[in-house]
Write a structure and sequence with these properties.
The chain is of the alpha+beta class and 367 residues long. The chain is built from nine helices and 20 strands. The chain has helices at residues 2-11, 53-61, 103-113, 118-131, 147-159, 177-194, 205-211, 229-234, 239-244, and strands at 13-24, 27-38, 42-46, 68-73, 76-77, 88-91, 165-169, 197-202, 214-219, 222-227, 249-257, 260-263, 268-270, 281-286, 292-293, 299-310, 314-321, 324-331, 345-350, 355-359. The termini are far apart. Bound molecules: adenosine-5'-triphosphate. Adenosine-5'-triphosphate binds at residues 24, 27, 29, 47, 49-55, 203.
């Protein structure tokens, strides 16, 4: 019985957008987006600058109103409700802490504003500061803390209100790489511990993949693809998603039959995905780490090593083939380092199961 309740709960949408559109003059920032964000999930809106992810987040938070469509929090449409009447808190990239207040008072601020009983404030603030690993900093001022610590105070200040949904607008953008990586894991732990729905906006694919259960990849105001990180990486449905989530090789050609693509060089490549009608312009995609040099495989292309760069865990090769340049990552798992020098002829092999297929739109298809 308990399991059924838990299952039912996770299936409930905490935030729902129904054909939401937002225009700024002649720019369509968000273009008819429909999406459900399940309760308790860590959901990332990922996309390049200007794709509409911040506007989407701001509409959920109540900082912008849609021109068309409806946003629901739980079962309730929230059209026209100001931010402070929504059970949502936002953490921005700039921490916006009160510089003259102590950390304790910064975090307690929201509780006091909501008239939480005085005797409960201290306990609640301390509990949240422990959660974000800042116990002991209560009496300090923001400027006495590092950037990462200040960001965690901002997070504590949003979490202390126990919102149904937490919105995160590039909250780690101002931190250096090492701190950012550490905070990514901490944010995930906090989300897991509290069970609150997190909606996180980022343009950093690695960050989205590290933290999110579900990622929506946005481009030009629309969600191009939505799914768990592994599905988006292994089976991107468009060349935009393939390129945005990590490096990929796209071998252009046309559908030959049920499971074969004829490349422009006329070489044949077998794929694991279902293919559209014969004659359709498509690309077979393969991630660089799934290609093998000088091994047997159902698919084999000839080429010549053009460049190599040693990056420690792997060596990255660029191989020139009649179907374009291929990037190949060879893991350096053996003792020592043995490279294949530029100019060496090689075969690049890969199994059909390692491929994905994307249809090519006209703009992507060179003459
Ligand atoms: P970034 O990562 O750069 O913040 P984004 O994906 O979050 O980008 P948005 O900020 O949502 O994108 O912007 C989407 C589009 O809407 C852009 O073309 C932007 O210039 C435009 N836009 C956003 N806010 C406004 C505004 N207040 N007034 C006019 N145009 C806006």
């Amino acid at each position: 019985m308990a399991t059924t309740t838990a299952e039912t709960r996770t299936a409930v949408a905490d935030v729902r957008l129904d054909r939401v559109t937002k225009r700024f003059d002649d720019v369509v920032a968000v273009d008819g987006v429909t999406v459900e964000i399940p309760r308790g999930s860590f959901f990332a809106l990922l996309g390049p600058s200007g794709c509409g992810k911040t506007t989407t987040l701001r509409m959920i938070g109540g900082f912008e109103e849609p021109d068309d469509g409806v946003i629901y929090l739980g079962d309730q449409p929230v059209t026209g409700l100001p931010p402070y009447k929504r059970d949502v808190n936002t953490v921005f990239q700039s921490y916006a802490l009160f510089p003259h207040l102590t950390i304790f008072e910064n975090v307690a601020f929201g509780l006091r504003r909501r008239n939480v009983a005085r005797n409960q404030v201290a306990g609640r603030v301390q509990e949240i500061l422990r959660l974000v690993d800042l116990a002991g900093t209560e009496q300090r001022k923001p400027r006495q803390l590092s950037g990462g610590m200040q960001q965690r105070v901002a997070l504590a200040r949003a979490l202390v209100n126990n919102p149904q949904v937490l919105l995160l607008d590039e909250p780690l953008g101002a931190l250096d790489l090492k701190l950012r990586k550490q905070m990514q894991l901490e944010l995930k732990r906090i989300q897991h511990d509290m069970g609150i729905t997190f909606v996180h906006v980022t343009h950093d694919q690695e960050e989205a993949m590290t933290m999110a259960d579900v990622i929506a990849v946005m481009n030009r105001g629309r969600i191009q693809q939505l799914g768990p990180p592994d599905q988006l990486y292994e089976r991107p449905r468009t060349s935009f998603v393939a390129r945005f989530l990590g490096a990929s090789n796209l071998l252009k050609g046309t559908v030959e039959d049920r499971d074969t693509i004829r490349l422009r060089s006329s070489a044949l490549v077998r794929v694991g995905d279902e293919l559209p009608q014969p004659g359709t312009a498509v690309a077979a995609g393969v991630r660089p780490e799934k290609l093998r040099l000088d091994e047997d495989g159902a698919n084999r292309l000839s080429g010549t090593v053009k460049e190599l760069s040693y990056v420690g865990v792997a060596t990255q090769y660029v191989v020139e083939t009649p179907d374009g340049l291929l990037t190949v990552y060879v893991q350096n798992t053996e003792p020592g380092f043995r490279s294949i020098e530029p100019g060496t002829p090689v075969h690049v092999a890969f199994p059909p199961e390692s491929t994905f297929v994307v249809e090519l739109t006209e703009e992507e298809e060179p003459a």
